[in-house]
Write a structure and sequence with these properties.
54% helix, eight-stranded antiparallel beta sheet
Length: 525
Amino acid sequence: MPGLSTGLSAGSPVVVSGFYHELIVELVAIAAVALAVVVGAVAWRRLRGAPRAAVAAEPVARCVVRVAFGAIWVFDGILQAQASMPLAMVPQVVAPAASTSPGWVQAMVNWGGNLWNQHPISVPASAVWIQLGIGIWLLVAPRGWWSRAAGLVSLAWSVLVWALGEAFGGIFAPGLSWLTGAPGGVVFYAVAGLLVALPLTAWTPRLGRRLLAIYGSFLVAMALLQAWPGRGSWQGAGRHTTGNLTATLQTMAGNSQPHWLASLIAASARGVGAHGGAVNLVVVVLMTTSGVLLLTGRRTSVRAGVGVLVALTLVDWVIVQDMGFWGGVGTDPNSMLPQAILVVVGALALRAAPSEAPARVPRLAPLVTSAASLVAVGVLVVGSVPALAASVAPAASPVLAEAAGGAARALDRPVPAPVAARMTSGSALLVEVGHCGARTTWEVRIAASAAARWPTTVLVRGGCASLTVPAGFVRVSGPARDAGSILVIHHGRERAAVEVRGPHSSALRSSYATVLVDALVSSAR
């Protein structure tokens, strides 16, 4: 998708080393926060004591959803710390998810993707700590408002990731399929967060029936979509066309993964390719049967429906979704595992209402819960601040220029006197971009007065580029890039970064562009 590429290698040593350095620095900050919280907790206990408390017992179903999704969030945070994430996350994960979505979805995803690309150290590091913080918070807070707050934060972050990172799970794009991940794995994280945010008194058999009924209806709808003709679901591997499921399996088989898993997926691709219609029929029947059984709300029927669905989701998770995290850019276990957990939680909630008898908890449990939750909040804050700062930063990270061809330096040299005399704030340049024998012109305005020196920033109006370039006759040559890409300007022995922003011109794709700052125009223009 246009606008979501930096043009840098995913293994750029400059960016990768900077990314891990950022994680280490933030880990030290988190350790300092944890130490301060522990010291404060000890002091609080000495001053106020810690009387034994009697609280309502946490329902088993709630405990399962809280611990399971807490562990998944921690796992996701660890996946975000992979070396390929800073530069490969957007072009290989985010852009494909939004490539066939409507323009307004692509615009939202472009904003988030460009933020990630322009700050490939601070923003990816923030994602690591935010997800680790949410996971830790869910795990350490079993009850009370600390636990409910963790659910709300999990819900909010899930919705944000679902919109910007998964393009709403592809629900607005053609080819939607439950088997391959629709409506997005993280939307089920949001459901889990909402469940954790509910008060303990809400965990009754009625909640379980509602949860199973909603999911059963969703599953029947997805089965109908899977059975709909003309969408590629009934095709295998023909001479001229390949079915959607076969194509997905062939792609997954090529991922970097254990040999046994690659062989299993490749064999499955051959089987589906030869019997695509029969496989889809079995899938549709199993999905419909499970959904109807869950809709009944009867415990015997629900148990059968849960058993069929869990088996189907696990097979799909391993073979079709490739467990979600192989290949070096996997960010989560995809959608099947979260769905299986939620269905089991719904079935557990049917069993009995929570006991009204208070549970005796260890004397220090409330204090430990509060302290651990404060540490988790500290992890979230440490992770969020760099991302928030990046979102309002006026320029891209200078590490991009260093990774592209060397550290960017200020081009601090006198310009010719006739040119310098007109270099004032608001002055304009003409930038010509040549491609395939044609030329396109954008207007460039100097953002700040540069007196008799090179301007520190010039902004291309019309969506071509944001440049840090000298005025005068400076030529920039290189392969055309999408918005968010980085080129390097060579002016004598000096170098500066070119950050391409705004809409991408399709005429420049796969061509070579020459940017020529060739004239100054009066500020009155």
